[in-house]
Protein 1
Amino acid sequence: MTSTALELPEAALTGLRDHLMATAADEDKTPLEELDGLSDSVLAAYWHGYVKASESGGTGQALHIAAFGASLFAPMVAVCKDIDGLRAALAHSFQ
């Protein structure tokens, strides 16, 4: 993935994308509807969790479990500097 203003860790982006797709399917929504339904703070907490989890090298189910745990303890300052860029990258990945 290339980005001019925002560099996103690929493993974290893929993990969060997979999570949103699975959650959307469980709730009979599209992935974009699921993404649009998240507040900036919730999206930032999920993002923090997936970034932290991907740093450990986990994959698959282990990545999702670690990300969930890390997102529960995301500091309030974990809000991504460019949450709009993160939303755009995720939305683009659903196409």
Protein 2
Amino acid sequence: MTTEHENGREHEHVAERIAAAALEHPCVVRLDGGEYGTVATHLPGRRVTGVRTTADTGDTTEVCVVLLLRRPVPELAAELRERIREVTGETRIDVTVADVLTPEQEPESNHGAGETR
């Protein structure tokens, strides 16, 4: 396992690290802001869409994703929680699935589509 320093993420905000961890999952097509775009973390000069967190205070972290449906959704959500828990530690993690794509709908590239502005 690589450390945050080794992968160049030591200066990123925790929301950006959570977004990266989610997007590294092979079944995550992209992060999503939810119905009204409210699932986001606002940072100075930018926002991380699809991640709402105050993990540094131990509160709930919410992640909203669009999944490529290769396996049952509960399995994929559990895997995402574990990946995110590696970043946040032992906090509550809510995973919302905004949409799913079937393997026939798979985009050419399903990574890097997460929005960080």
Protein 3
Amino acid sequence: MPNRKQAAPPRPLVVGDVVAAHSRDLGEWTVAQIVQLDVDSQTAAVLELDWSGPEPSSVADLGDVVPLRTPNEMIFGVVGSLRDR
């Protein structure tokens, strides 16, 4: 029997959560940390983390991660809709 993936997180997302998404451009999984949520508009601001690789099954699979950009390069804003996740 094939393994079924969850269609939604096991609980509501909260600031501080680390989320993974597959990158078509890289052909690997990437991760980001949620830094702000807007429940009304169902959007989130994220901090992209400097990691890509095979699909992680837990945060422990990531090892030590750091922000993809330095604080001076970061621009926080609404980056995606939670409805699309």
Protein 4
Amino acid sequence: MSDQQETKTKREYRKGNPLTKTELNRRSDANKQKSHKLIRTFVPYVFAEKFKIQCKKQGLTLQDAVYEAMVEFQDKYFNEQK
């Protein structure tokens, strides 16, 4: 029975060497890039801190809040052109 276990290929993270947080994040980012677009921007520090506080109060992640804002923006401006 141990011969069968040795011949099976195991997933990399189950071989006793767990992935580092950095490697796990890299793989996650690589998977996200297949269906998402990374957008980076600079905003005033004060605005960013207030935004983080409001997101926390609402129970949202920054990603979810920005997504919702983008959807509202799209509905307001892109749908008018029809």
